[in-house]
Amino acid sequence: GEKVEQHESTLSVREGDSAVINCTYTDTASSYFPWYKQEAGKGLHFVIDIRSNVDRKQSQRLIVLLDKKAKRFSLHITATQPEDSAIYFCAASTAGNTRKLIFGLGTTLQVQP
Amino acid sequence: GPKVLQIPSHQIIDMGQMVTLNCDPVSNHLYFYWYKQILGQQMEFLVNFYNGKVMEKSKLFKDQFSVERPDGSYFTLKIQPTALEDSAVYFCASSTGASAETLYFGSGTRLTVL
Lengths: 113, 114
Fold this sequence. Notes:
Chain A is mainly beta.
């Protein structure tokens, strides 16, 4: 079946540095790629998404890149802050079916002050 | 941002009992979902629900599972009877509607079946 692999299980960066989390997917029909953040004891909080009609999207300090040929997408967090520390989940779904997201296992990001 | 509330946050029950997990979705949302996450594994889609009906379900959505949202109240997931393998965190989500809409998730209910 369809899979999403999240390559980094943990990531530690210094405050102010950039953090990059990489994901790959198997279903070539995937066209919607959201990212979620989960802080301790809380639910998944939507942070940013990208659709297959573009290869880059930015929202403030967050940049998502999509490489459809390699079936790879990544989340870049620039100028990291301690409050960016959380678990980040990538996900993918096919066109017209965003209700069925395939999730990665999550990356625990620690931003050291 | 929009908030989805899940009640309770943790439930412990004996195998074979019935359990109902409650979700209060975002007020103007029309699509509702349940996802299941076993410890250390990926979060997996269970079911989505629209206009009083199950639209799509996965193979994880066993015959013992059912969902409903009576009269616009809580969106519920009922498991009857429960089995040991149902122990997991169950996440509810909702969205405004049509495809390509963002899903908003609750904080999950940790279900422990003894």
